[in-house]
Amino acid sequence: MTALLDVENLSVRYGDLVALRGASLTVSEGEVVCIIGPNGAGKSTTLATIAGGVTPVSGDIRLDGRTILGQRPEQIARLRLSLVPEGRHIFGTLTVAENLQIGGYMLGDRAAARSDMERLLDHFPRLRERLRYPAGRLSGGEQQMLAVARAVMTRPRLLLVDEPSLGLGPKIIDQIYEILLELRQREKMTLLINEQSSARILKFADRIYVLRSGTVQLEGRAADLRDGEAIRHAYFGFGDGERPVVTAA
Amino acid sequence: MIQFVQNLIDALALGSIYALTALGIGLLFGILRLINFAHGDMITIGAYALIVPSADVTARLLIGSWTPAAVIIAISMIVVVAALITDAAVFRPLRTASSPTLMISSFAVSYIIQNGILIFYGARPKAVDFWSGANVQVYIGELRVPLLQLITLVVTLVLMVVLTLFLRRTPYGVQMRAAAEDFRMAQYLGVRANVVIGLAFAISGILAAAVSMLYITQSGSLTHQMGVPLALFAFVAVVVGGMGNLTGAVVGGFTLGLIVTMLQAYLPSDLRAFRDAFAFVVVILVLLIRPAGLLPARTTIERV
């Protein structure tokens, strides 16, 4: 069986800076896979490269066994692969409704997009109340929800979510994960999520990749990694002197 | 008082021309971060398309002699096609280039167009008698207003309303606004970059064609560099209004029209020759007080 997403030996540079050195990962249909790693490990670069926003120097990215390298982001979006980028990138001067509509235009079927939006808003009552607001006026948590909802409007098979919990309070983060998992059930989506901390993600994810300095340090089923010791080693590296104490976030 | 109101109408008419040109420049800047100095030459193309190609000093009308509706459609189409060709030939291959590279390229496009016109039409300015019937005066009470100024105002308002409705109400308009705010994010959501950019060039072409016709009717003369000062003033209008904001471009255009007209009317006659220098002093003062322009682009409010 071919995996839904297959990333092989991916290397990315920004000028002199090497962001990824030969990272590989696979995601199968229906899985929830999480990439964890410290700041600057290359997590965001991995997702942006898969979505077509960054051109790698070497390696391959395959969707259903076919390479998607060299395709523009808008073409990759049409393969039903959608990215919720770090920092959310809400269109702040557009209304909440317009932000959502943007995701639906790709389908070319206005009635379907409208009913998608109706259905989706059941998960996001806060957004429904604010449909006519400029999206820039939403709170951080609401913006994150809008970013997720907007991506789901493109009817993705594979949804990439870059640090959904960044800068948000624990209650909102829980809500966002709840919604992500609900949507995954209802929309039959596969999820690939970046996070900095493993605490919450171990409950949700099927499999974990730990990324540090642009390479995959550890890969495993979340159930096998629950005690956290292996993750801590992979996350901080070996032989760095005193090992920092990790407190569950 | 009557004199002042007449000056005000002059200012609105001149401001309309600047505002329409500034809208064309502002639209492309918003979406491509391209400062398109060749926009002025699109206006020149629209103007020269009215006449028979020849080196004569008095131009004979070609398209310009058709019925007004046919003229408007033909000139708009010619300028739109010219704008799309510059995109396809020059700016599309430079899609990933930096903003300064794009700007320099637009200078190149500008020179190529000007020299192309030189080859076919000669270098001497041409007198042209186009829609001169619009230059009559109409009386509104005691006010004497050139009909053309009223037409200019109405055309400008109509174009602005139509453009606003397009941007607010249609799927392509919403996609253009999204792309202007965050191009890459729009692409991630499936918005086709080349479609949105092509639309921006086409709309800027329609705006340039409108300026061509209004401006020629008023000035009655053609030169191969006629678009350059318009693009320059419009660019200043964009900066004064606030870059990356279409309302700002319009406000900047009318502000500039007001400054120039009022200086022309109220400067001592010895100094009128230096009107533009005074106008730019005012522009510098405006920018010293509001460096981001009169209406700075609204940025996304990022909250945590």
* Overall mean pLDDT of chain A: 89
Sheet with the most strands of chain A? 6 strands, mixed
Give the number of domains of chain A: 1
The percent range for strand residues of chain B is: under 5%
Structure description:
The complex is a heterodimer of chains A (249) and B (304). By secondary structure, chain A is an alpha/beta fold. Chain A has a single domain (5-236), classed as 3-Layer(aba) Sandwich (Rossmann fold), CATH 3.40.50.300. In chain A, 34% of the residues lie in helices and 25% in strands. A six-stranded mixed beta sheet of chain A has the order 6-7-8-3-9-10, with helices on both faces. Chain B has 304 residues and is mainly alpha-helical. Chain B has one domain (2-228). Chain B contains eleven helices and four strands, in the order H-H-H-H-E-E-E-H-H-H-H-E-H-H-H. Chain B has a two-stranded antiparallel sheet. A two-stranded antiparallel sheet of chain B has the order 2-3. Chain B is globular, with a radius of gyration of 19 Å. Classes of the chains: A alpha/beta (249), B mainly alpha (304). The interface between A and B is medium-sized, with 38 and 24 residues.
